[in-house]
Amino acid sequence: MKTLKDQKRRVCVIGAGTAGLCALKNSLEAGLDAVAYERGTEIGGTWIFSDKMPKDEYDEVHSSMYEGLRTNLPKEVMGYPDYSYPDDIDESFITAQQVLNFLRSYAKHFKLEPHIKLQHEVIRVRPRLDDWEVYVWDHSTDTCDPVYYDFVYVCNGHYTEPDLPQIEGLELYRGKKMHSHLYRKADTFKDESVLIIGAGPSGMDICNHIRTAAKKVFLSHHLSTTPNTAFMGNVSQKPDVERFTPNGAVFKDGSEESFGHVLFCTGYKYTFPCLSTDVGIQVIDNFVQPLWKHCININHPTMAFIGLPFNVIPTHIFDMQVRFTVKFFTGERQFPSREEMIAELEQEIGERWGCGVHNRKKAHQMGERQFVYYNELARIAGIENIKPVIHKLMKDCGKKYIFELDSYRSNKYTIVDNENFLKNGKAIV
Predict the structure, then answer these.
(1) pLDDT of res. 4
(2) Which residue range(s) make up the domain with 186?
(3) pLDDT tens per residue across span 24-50
(4) Are residues 136 and 20 both part of a single domain?
(5) Which of 10, 38, 113, 220 is most buried by its number of CB atoms within 10 A?
(6) Confidence class of residue 159 from pLDDT cuts 50, 70 and 90?
(7) What CATH number is attached to the domain comprising 81?
(8) 201, containing H or E segment
(9) Using CA atoms, how far apart are residues 347 and 338, in angstroms rounded to an integer?
(10) In b/e form, how buried is each residue of 308-333, taking b as 16+ CB within 10 angstroms?
């Protein structure tokens, strides 16, 4: 492993969204020579709203942002540990544009712009003996050249490649089909009957948007707890789809409905199209392996993936993963042996499977586990942990999109200190 001695180590950051900006900022602060490549025309990743639709089946649309979106987490937990949202934003649950403005201000505050190359797409990353060969396509000049780096941060996001379920009879269905990745406006469904599959945060939120324009909405899910849709007069809840018919679907309770649109709110696939096979990473049903602590490529530990865990505090976990990996990239901490990292990975996965859920798609799911994970990263690398107030505030927000969708965004949070916060002006114990 190289350490910082006579020359600066070079860092390639793939992507300039929430995770990429954080990787760039912390790398530069650690004295590394870092560059972030962003294929788009501006920074911000998935927070950039665009009406762009695919021209054909080979055209890719990057953003999943839709009109009228407000965050489902309060801004008080969406800032970075060392850079918060400005106090002059009164609401806690803010618009996508306000998030984008915040990311721009973060980049400006930490003077990141000179280190970001826009309209530069990383198309191949390949390990060499002691470094990485990175081919970068400059869209402005239509040229593609190799650049060489000591470390690579993969921060390409995971809201681009839709994950569509295989359901019997879908090819027979004659209505319109769409994944939430391409949903933009509720007016698309004006006076229509719509089936929404999936009741995660985006499924619930989009259902609430669409029902204002649609004639009838069916919400299909397999949640063990029934979401609150009582305030949505034209929404009916349904179990999973058993099979599709030409004009609708039969559900697992035997009921049948007709509708003209299906909207799949069924999540996304983790994909890393720019990584060559000799990078040594496999993705099977969203289980990215082999990774140490959900971020370090065990086969090539000079590569880190930022932001794979879900059901987490996004910005804070990005920042913590970056600060964790930087300690190893700068040589302040030494990696365990490959055998030790593999053993730790196998132990954790064994514990997950031992809970009775042998589902690769949940390999990076955190939920309550996230707080144990943060403690591990802090202990191993000797870095500052996430403040207790962020933990507490996050727990207060949990599952509100299911049970209090009609009202929870009216809550206003105020952080008092590292331990305490107010909710609508009252202290929460």
Answers:
(1) 43
(2) 164-264
(3) 999 999 999 999 999 999 999 999 988
(4) yes
(5) 38
(6) confident
(7) 3.50.50.60
(8) helix 201-210
(9) 14
(10) bbbebbebbbbbbbbbbbbbbbbeeb
